[in-house]
Write a structure and sequence with these properties.
This protein is of the alpha/beta class. It contains ten helices and 14 strands. It binds S-adenosylmethionine (SAM).
């Protein structure tokens, strides 16, 4: 009989609804949505498919337990009660890779890590009949969240964070993460049959993520995952099937108009190389071009972009003129929409228009805004009359 697990997918704060929809579309049932993570139900196949297909999850954790702990003794006993031997083989390498605590009595990550490791060893000693663990086999790193004294424990199945798709070897000074770029595109009504231009494309993240979506290319096709080594829990066949499914879905013949521009010629070369390694170079037109030269002859396109926000003092001085130019160039485009993520507080003032919607988004520790200026929809195509 198939074994079902609870799987936890952490994501960017504020992007839970986007991730939830992705998980439902992949065919899984959601059991819980919390700030910064979505929990769902799935079997061994789901672990592989979630890792390979989810564009907005940071990683996929196999949930192994949840209990209350206000003291280290309760943390020890709660951890010891988890049947670790069902997940970790005798030679497995196990440790608490990350412990985070919010509004909880226990908060010292190093103490939480030490006590939980000790409790796991105590649990597995009688289960395996040994007192020393070689830890020479596959890795089983734990991630632990404490929220209001409720401890949630998961084993990381992904390894490197899922934003590392494998294509972005070269980056600009302030790149946006691939998972956040994908989530922001999904928050807009952009569809592959609409034009998408990023006039500040940097290393190409927005155009590349959009092209991968248009070509139905799974984000995890070009990388590996830590739990591929977990022969005790996930048969190799599940990974092969997930990769075969991903390969079968790719459609590189899709017709798109996706463009990326940047004033810096070297970064444009990097963007092109990144698109090449993602396998979508033929779907994107990259070119060195300043914002002042931005134009497009067609209607109803989308600007989706992450302009400079003044990371350095000298750049800050140029921001009013730059954002005024964004406004001027945007107004010159016919019935376009613009979606702009920036930490610049005066963006709307200089763009010269109040956004129709504005969302606060934390990009790491930095507070940013996702300004949404919505243009009209193209008229519905008239059905051909016979
Ligand atoms: C915040 S970065 C964009 C990062 C990008 N989203 C990525 O993931 O790599 C802003 C980019 O704007 C470019 N830039 C600055 N001024 C520009 C201008 N006037 N016209 C076009 N690009 C410009 C910079 O070279 C930089 O690559």
């Amino acid at each position: 009989m198939k074994k079902y697990f609870e799987l936890i997918a952490p994501c960017h704060f504020g992007m839970e609804a986007v991730l939830k929809k992705e998980i439902i579309d992949l065919g899984y049932e959601i059991s819980l949505v919390e700030d910064g993570r979505v929990t769902f139900l799935g079997d061994d196949e789901a672990i592989c498919r979630a890792n390979v297909f989810l564009r907005t999850a940071e990683r996929v954790l196999l949930k192994v337990g949840s209990f209350r702990a206000e003291t280290f003794e309760e943390l020890f006993q709660g951890t010891k009660a988890i049947p670790w031997e069902e997940y970790i083989p005798q030679d497995g390498k196990f440790w608490v890779a990350k412990a985070s605590s919010i509004k909880s009595k226990l908060f010292s990550p190093s103490d939480i890590q030490r006590i939980m490791k000790k409790a796991m060893v105590e649990r597995m000693k009688p289960a395996y009949g040994i007192s020393q663990f070689p830890e020479t086999g596959s890795s089983y790193p734990l991630r632990v969240f404490l929220y209001k004294d409720q401890v949630t424990v998961g084993i990381d199945t992904s390894g490197d964070s899922l934003h590392k798709r494998g294509y972005r070897t070269l980056t600009s000074k302030a790149p946006i993460t691939e998972t956040l770029a994908a989530a922001l595109i999904m928050l807009t009504p952009w569809k592959p049959d609409r034009i998408l231009v990023d006039p500040f494309c940097g290393s190409g993240t927005f155009p590349i993520e959009a092209a991968m979506m248009a070509a139905n290319m799974a984000p995890g096709m070009n990388r590996s995952f830590l739990s591929e080594d977990w022969k005790n829990l996930i048969p190799r066949k599940c990974w092969y099937e997930a990769m075969d499914e991903a390969n079968d879905l790719v459609d590189l013949d899709v017709k798109v108009d996706i463009q990326g521009y940047d004033i810096d010629g070297d970064i444009v070369k990097a963007a092109r190389a990144n698109a090449e390694s993602a396998g979508v170079a033929d779907l994107i037109h990259f070119q060195q071009r300043p914002l002042s030269a931005l134009s497009h002859p067609k209607k109803y396109g989308f600007l989706i972009t992450n302009p400079p926000y003044g990371e350095r003092i000298e750049e800050k001085e140029n921001l009013p003129a730059l954002y005024k130019e964004i406004g001027d160039r945007f107004r010159a485009l016919d019935d376009w929409s613009a979606y702009i993520i920036t930490a610049y507080e005066d963006a709307e003032k200089y763009i010269g228009r109040k956004a129709d919607k504005n969302r606060k988004i934390y990009n790491g520790m930095m507070k940013t805004y996702f300004y949404q200026f919505m243009g009209p929809k193209p008229p519905a195509r008239r059905r051909e009359q016979n």
